[in-house]
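Subject: mismatched residue count in predicted assembly?

I count 1036 residues in my input, but I want to confirm that the predicted structure covers every chain. Input:
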Amino acid sequence: METLTGKNLIGNTWSSRGNAVLSPINPATGSASETEFFVASPEEIDSAGELASRAALDPNFLDLRKRSAFIYEIADQIEQLGDQLVEAACFETGLPEARIMGEKGRTVFQLRQFAQHMLAGFHLDLSWDQAETERVPIPKPDIRKMNIPVGPVAVFSAGNFPLAFSTAGGDTASALAAGCPVILKGHEGHLMTNEIVSQAILKAAEKCSMPDGVFSFVNGGYDVGEQLVKDPNISSIAFTGSTTGGKALIAYARERDEPIPVFCEMGSINPVLVSSSYQENHLDDLPEILAGSIFLGTGQFCTNPGLLLLEKGSKTSDFVEKLSKSLGAQNPTPMLSSKIFEGFSTRVKQLTGEEPSPKNHSSGFLLSVSGEQFLQDKKLQEEVFGPFSLAVIIENQEELQQILSSLEGQLTGSLYIEEDELHEKGAYWSVLTRRVGRIIYNGVPTGVEVCPSMNHGGPWPASSDQRFTSVGFDAIRRFLRPVSFQDFPEKHLPFELSREGLSSFPHRLNGQLIVPNG
Amino acid sequence: METLTGKNLIGNTWSSRGNAVLSPINPATGSASETEFFVASPEEIDSAGELASRAALDPNFLDLRKRSAFIYEIADQIEQLGDQLVEAACFETGLPEARIMGEKGRTVFQLRQFAQHMLAGFHLDLSWDQAETERVPIPKPDIRKMNIPVGPVAVFSAGNFPLAFSTAGGDTASALAAGCPVILKGHEGHLMTNEIVSQAILKAAEKCSMPDGVFSFVNGGYDVGEQLVKDPNISSIAFTGSTTGGKALIAYARERDEPIPVFCEMGSINPVLVSSSYQENHLDDLPEILAGSIFLGTGQFCTNPGLLLLEKGSKTSDFVEKLSKSLGAQNPTPMLSSKIFEGFSTRVKQLTGEEPSPKNHSSGFLLSVSGEQFLQDKKLQEEVFGPFSLAVIIENQEELQQILSSLEGQLTGSLYIEEDELHEKGAYWSVLTRRVGRIIYNGVPTGVEVCPSMNHGGPWPASSDQRFTSVGFDAIRRFLRPVSFQDFPEKHLPFELSREGLSSFPHRLNGQLIVPNG
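Triage response: the counts match. Full output below for your records.
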């Protein structure tokens, strides 16, 4: 067990040259920790950028197998973290031990999935078009193409996932797997957790002979974020958090001369459509299931079902009543911070007239409105971050179509519809598919499976670039770019593009996909 | 043969509601054509956007096979265009007939390559993770993922490629192949050519029962471009042209609430490094080869070798002299427009004190500077659009490393180095690889092969998004985004994700790549 220093990690060096400090607060009790954490100074951030830029060219880090071993080692180091991690994370976030243990397991699993899948080389998009020296009017050259890393990535730790979307979370794992050094901007909601995990990454980097600068960790607020986004050494940004935070980063990036990709996963209200027949047939179980999803993690997931589209039928009022009761009956649990609680409390009060209690804790809330009210008031589409959902009672098919068409971009859309209704109501989901990143049949949106087929992202404003997922192995694609080698002598090509490399990885040969030993 | 109308094509309707007009000019003679071309009105552009947005949901257009047939038909229609096209293009651009015929062939070839490769389904990135209903603590759902089109794309026709990067060029072909309707912004340098090709596309769309709005064509200047970039119906931008033009589009896009991807291929100076040994061994042929590449298309290619990095050796001054003579001896050919000629003439005069002549025509120019001069004057890195190249005489290895590190992002980098020098000088190309999109061994950068392994793009400012190519089949990836289907009943999945679809296309099954019949 390491002592907490409250310092920033600039490459392999713990550093505290800044003056401002931050203190960890227990959201459930309001008590503060003794350790103070230093906000990174502009010079420290500059140094992190320069070190990252050099580390990006390091042969050890660029070697696919060595990099994979490094990521496996990070997973091992995190797995070995014991009580200190759990106690710190529970203290800072108010989340229960079981959740922290579960999230630790997910973090380790994610790291190992990247470390494993990267060895298969699918993400390299290897391609070889062979020369045709006799072609007329001009010979065809030998051209081979592969993906290489874009360069250093600034990752912004998420408030609602102190481990799985933070220091060694999915963004960090995918950037490192791609071959990009990471500068991690810590979240002030879990300062101690950030440092403990950073210590684990540093140990892994040293054990695996990774270059100084392969990972840095800095604390701070908007100023630190702004400097990172504008740093010329940074090639890409990954962020999971609020719309306000994401939009601020996008605005900073727009002030850069050189455009860089900014991946912001900003959450959404994840519409859930329930047909009138389904309500009738599932009055006994669905309200409980939905209430469980809405209240999961005290409602602080980006896939929280914040919008229920209920086709009006004979059982709709019973359905809403059962759901509302079930939500109100949830035992109040702590929210992630007093700031988040205040924001949630204000919105809930505006919308329902009710107030969550006791301080910093909440049970679940439901507001029911008509389709007409929903269409008239654009503000009802705004995410309420916490255990709240809006039930919209829909009069007819025309109103439903209007509502679906008016929806902003979403991470997910769920359809609770009987199978024999699917064909007849197919038009819903063809419209819905255009507005979401993942469409779910008879299931809740919470619970984001970590697998290659997962898409976690969606049309604006759910995320800033709908073409990429932030969960699952394909998240690596955010941090890669192609480069072609024309007429290079065999022995001077990068290993992956040599005959030996091509014979061990999937690749296209003159446009035909080939899987060796496949 | 159709009569030229000078109108815009809004969906399937020729329209001329605007007041301003543009006239085709022959750059070689200065004479104007009789037909005037209407600048599109704001209402016409709005209509094109709305039609495109509706066309994006059309089942015929979304069907992979029908869409492929449509693209094949466009190729056939263009192939059938005869003298009218050649005469118009030669008149407007000053390019010789052989070049226009070659470019027509390339355009048809590109369209067919997209139409063919899209049927293989590799670009769909199909993936299936099977359910594990017995998994604890929670069952694993069935998740399948595929790429779908992002929505309507605004394509900006390039000035220097009236066919291959214009109305039915690579950007249009890749957007249509992806399933995205196209609004084509014509280039005022080849107004007649734009309309003739648009007529061919309209015929193909009608013949293949494609929806109204699958393709529109509008004429105009910066105002029209600005409106297109800011149109809420537009999901993506593709542009090939000058840095000034590209930066203007990026600035317009930054004013949008909703960020969209902007793909600008803005050209570069394409450094060519020649070792002193190579100069000695190839004094007889390389100067001629380089002069031919610099003068190709009167130097108006984005892959024009504008920067020659010459290691100083015993034959360097002979090498420069031969190259300079060869360039000066080129028979002056017309440039694309008087505007381009004026720009070129001004820059050449500033740099060399010489002047191209006769009016609107040019032979080739070379300026020779020391490594030190090059490092001191950032302006020497600016592209001179036309038949000009800058030879930099490099004193030693340290200076060369400094120069390579100081280079801006480039489309290509060439190495003329003997094979036995490659190992020793490997450091050059590992640095160079980071600055370019394509690296060429002992070859000129001009001549961009259209094949899956081609990468045409590069780090800023060569292009605005180095992660994507604008030439070759992978250009389709700019216009796709993933969507996941969770727990959907087999018969209600999109065909591509059904068992039948998966059994006919390459896909990942639980992370393992599978090629049916492969």
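Residues 8-240 of chain B form a domain with the Aldehyde Dehydrogenase; Chain A, domain 1 fold (CATH 3.40.605.10). Marking this ticket as 'not a bug'.
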